[in-house]
Amino acid sequence: MKLSDPRIDKLSEEIVDLLAEQDDVRLQADDVKLRHAIRDEVVDELTVEERLDAEVRKMLEQHRSDITMGRMNYDELFRRVKQRLINERRIIL
């Protein structure tokens, strides 16, 4: 994750404060619940690539013998599979 937990908490607080100041926005939950929901969404977005990398590693585990025998280049295969999943799922990193 690229941001520390205290920084994410601060950003969540700032977002709630900004929304509360808007005349055309009506918040339907208390500030604490909103901050937690925003924090969860931010963390989820920041960990997309980490989860994707873990999924690619798991997929490549099936081809471990071919990779270790030199028939396939792990780094190249990892990059290709990751890019394919990014394109298929329309992930923005």
Keywords:
mainly alpha
What kind of oligomer do you see? single chain
Average pLDDT, rounded to a whole number, is 89
Strands, total number: 0
What string gives the helices and strands in order? HHHHH
Structural class: mainly alpha
Query: What is the global morphology?
Result: elongated
Helix count from the secondary structure assignment: 5
Q: Could you list the spans in which at least 5 consecutive residues all have pLDDT below 50? A: none
Helix content: over 70%
Strand content: under 5%
Q: Compute the number of structural domains.
A: 2
Q: How does the major sheet shape up?
A: none
Radius of gyration: 20 Å
Terminal residue distance: 12 Å
Descriptive overview:
The protein is elongated, with a radius of gyration of 20 Å. It is 73% helix and 0% strand. The model has no long low-confidence stretch (mean pLDDT 89). The longest helix is centred in the N-terminal third of the chain and has 17 residues. 3% of the residues are buried. The protein is mainly α and 93 residues long. It folds into 2 domains: 42 residues; 42 residues, no CATH class. The chain contains 5 helices and no strands.
Write the topology of this structure.
Blueprint: H1 5-21, H2 31-46, H3 48-61, H4 64-68, H5 74-89
Helix pairs in contact: 1-2, 3-5
